[in-house]
Amino acid sequence: MAVSIKKISEKEPIEKYLIKGASIEIMNAIRRSILEDVPCLAIEEVSIYQNDSVMFDEFLAHRLGMLPIKSDAKGYKKGDKLKFVLEKDGPGMVYSKDIKSTDPKVEIVDKKIPIVKLAKDQTIKLEMDAVMHSGKEHAKWQPAVIGYQEVANIIFSKDCDACEECVKACPKNVLEMKAGKVVLTDSLGCILCGACKDACEKKAVKIDVEPKTFVLSIETQGILDSKECLLGAINSLREKSKEFEKLLKKVE
Fold it and tell me: Phi/psi of residue 5, each to 5°?
């Protein structure tokens, strides 16, 4: 069975995809590949020429390194660098909007991130090198938060007397009474918590899952969009599979 992928939700920042024909092993591989293999930009090297603020140089560099950068994945490859500049006089708060990029296509995602507060006659002046790398090196290069779950298939046995206790117990309100029977109205919304099963005294509720069917959730930080994350992971897995195939041939 071929694997099919369909976007089912586009509510920013979380987008969801329905994946059919996959296994848990494949879903784990996709998740780990997005976290570890999909490259993006993050500040790695900071040259501080002046820092009169109360924040130590090391703390300031760490704070700058965690800023999410909107990456042009097509224009850069792993190891490439891009320079940013920050120069501001006090008094006032230094925000991420004060950081200037040498490439107009690349910028800090959120302009309102506070960095450090400067008092009167305090100055901050520095240069930063953002490096294209992947999450395998550090969490700051992870482009998104990823999770997946199996799709529910709740079965009601003939012992069910439609007492509605399972409907009341459902925290996601995906069970309803229709024509005197309890039905699952939204299998994708079910989180498989088991509350309906626990609420049924007659044990008439069985929680099962649809075979080889999953919902993949990608919460982006604005660094890359969910499609870029997914395609990047798939391309990485494809290359790893080719390399593994070559190694197997050498063994043979």
Answer: -125, 130
The CA-atom distances, in angstroms, between 31 and each of 147, 148, 155, 229, 239 are 7, 8, 29, 10, 16
The model's pTM is 0.83
- Cα–Cα distance measured from residue 145 to residue 139, given in angstroms and rounded to the nearest whole number: 11
Strand 205-220 and strand 144-156: the pairing is: antiparallel
Domains of the chain, by residue range, sit at 4-37+145-217, 40-139
CATH of span 40-139: 2.170.120.12
In the three-class reduction of DSSP (H, G, I as helix; E, B as strand; rest coil), residue 212 is classed as: strand
Could you count the other beta carbons within 10 Å of the beta carbon of residue 192? Answer: 15
Q: What is the token pair recorded at 176? A: 């309803």
Three-class SS state of 31: helix
Cα separation of 152 and 172, whole Å? 13
Domain 4-37+145-217 in CATH 3.10.129.10? The answer is no
The predicted-structure confidence for 141-200, as pLDDT tens digits, reads as follows 999 999 999 998 888 888 788 788 888 888 999 888 888 888 888 888 888 898 888 888
**pLDDT per residue as tens digits for the range 215-226:** 999 998 888 888
**Residues contacting residue 234 through CB under 8 Å, at least 6 positions apart:** 30, 33
| Euclidean distance between CA atoms 182 and 177, whole angstroms | 5
The token pair at 233 is: 């992971």
- Quote the CA–CA distance of 7 and 225 in Å, as a whole number: 13
